[in-house]
Target: Rhodanese domain-containing protein
Amino acid sequence: MRDHIQRTPHPPSKDYVTLSYYQFRPIPQKEDLLKIQYFFLTDLRAMDVVGRIYVSAEGINAQISCPKDRVKDFKAYYATHWPIFDKIRFNPAMSEGKAFKKLHVRIKGQLVADGIDNSTFDIYNEPTYLTPEEWHNELSSQSTPPILIDMRNHYESSIGHFENAIRPDVTTFKENVDAMLDICKGKEDKEIYMYCTGGIRCTRSGALLKSNGFKSIKMLRGGVTAYGRYIQDQRQQQVAEGRDEEEVKSIYKGKNFTFDKRLGEPITEEVLATCHICGTACDTYSNCSNMACNLLMISCPACQQRHQGTCGSGSCVEMVQELSEKQKKIDKNHPGLRGMKARLGIHPFHEHRLRVRPLKVMENRRNKARL
Ligand SMILES: [Zn+2]
Ligand SMILES: [Zn+2]
Model:
């Protein structure tokens, strides 16, 4: 996850669309993975595609931004050249714009890391896919709340989630799979609903449940991203038909956390979270501007300004000031702060699990200060 979170949100340029897509499909030979990596890098760069593509022995998982006028070519490229990825469904993000700066194609061990060996279950025993409309209708018409599991991490579900969802307080997908197994224990005959950002986590964990004798597992096809688009389309349709006084009732509240420089897109106006520094209502994530700290936190505009984009710790403010002084003295052609960070030998302050727990970090600091 660490590499996924970019530093500061940039205003997206409007002429790109962002798409996510994935497919589980065995690619056992390392040399095939290297070939795929090579072709994607050369071909997609030529189309000005940016983003992150992961390939592994179990398939592909990607989030990319593609120039609007190339989307047709991009889709045709997959259809023509990559018959092995014949089940890919391109899942568009809600907002337009370039969500990434560069194209990265990486070879990974697991597409989504839960540490469970693929030989222990049938990854192709997939759950039932509900379209956003089917999902909306089924969940809004139930008289008793169903078993509905949010398969995302705590920092994702805290800024937005479906009504009545069980939201495990977890930091990694692996922990969420353990939580899911606990929640589902003894409920093999019950209907279980699950969702995540784009679907891949549910395709995998749903297959795990089905392989373990669970009868009815239903997941949201295209995840929260697709649901957000469904709600957006409904609203646009209402406006077009002059029925805009009627409210489209989204059963998802708040924001959809995204692993790109936007760090989230709003689905409804509700703000479910608070600034980690001062506690006012806010759901905008950023990383502490001290790169060595890099704490993923929610901070309101006032706190951003007061603490120079840092998490508010004295040492972070100091370090950012010091670096910006040094930066001013450096030749314009220097690669920038990242290079300086390496030269100054700064080591990351927090391991991943603490980096996404700002309140815990702040509490630890207060305790330390008291000693
Ligand atoms: Zn604040
Ligand atoms: Zn910090």
